Amino acid sequence: MIKELFEEKGKMNMKLLSSLVSASLLLLAATGFGQEKSPEKPKELKNQTHCPVMGGKIDSTVFTDIQGQRVYHCCPSCIPKIKAEPDKYFKKAAAQGVIFENIQKTCPVSGEPIDKSKFVDFEGRRVYFCCNQCLKDFNKDPQKFLSKMTESSEKPSADMEKKRDTNEGHGDHHHGH
């Protein structure tokens, strides 16, 4: 009789243990434990169509080359504003999913030619690198390398000079400048 009681109790304990294990496995599967999380789908980026300063349609002859990006404007009067506060306008563009035209030729870390398969989208800028190590170095201190990327030759085109001198390109809008 005692032997039967222990056998019956053992069967109940095994059923209970089996049920607990099954429930635990279901719970782990439902929460995704042990599975790699799929990365978030990157935000759909679109080419620039409007001036980041005033919001007007861009004029392809009026632009600023800054931090490896070509930023188009509606008029030459917007150029000093982006030069004064580039981060403000790059972050605004990033929030809107806008990507500027990248004009980089060399890696901002090493100075070597870029590999277009090695890049990071950083606060409205697509930045290319020569290798993964440079990308890692950039991520440690982006501002250090962004400042190196501003093109030293920001000489405006002849068309831009003419527009700046004649205030052409404003159409019916005024910028208060």
Structural write-up:
With 177 residues, the protein is an alpha+beta fold. The chain has a domain at 46-150 and 160-166. The chain is 41% helix and 18% strand. It has helices at residues 2-31, 79-84, 86-95, 132-140, 142-149, 158-166, and strands at residues 46-47, 59-66, 69-73, 98-99, 101-102, 115-122, 125-129. The strands form three sheets. A three-stranded antiparallel beta sheet has the order 2-3-5. A two-stranded parallel ribbon has the order 1-4. It has a two-stranded antiparallel sheet with strand order 6-7. α4 (132-140) packs across α5 (142-149). The longest helix has 30 residues, at 2-31. It is extended. The N and C termini lie far apart (102 Å).
List keywords for this structure.
single chain, alpha+beta, extended, disordered C terminus
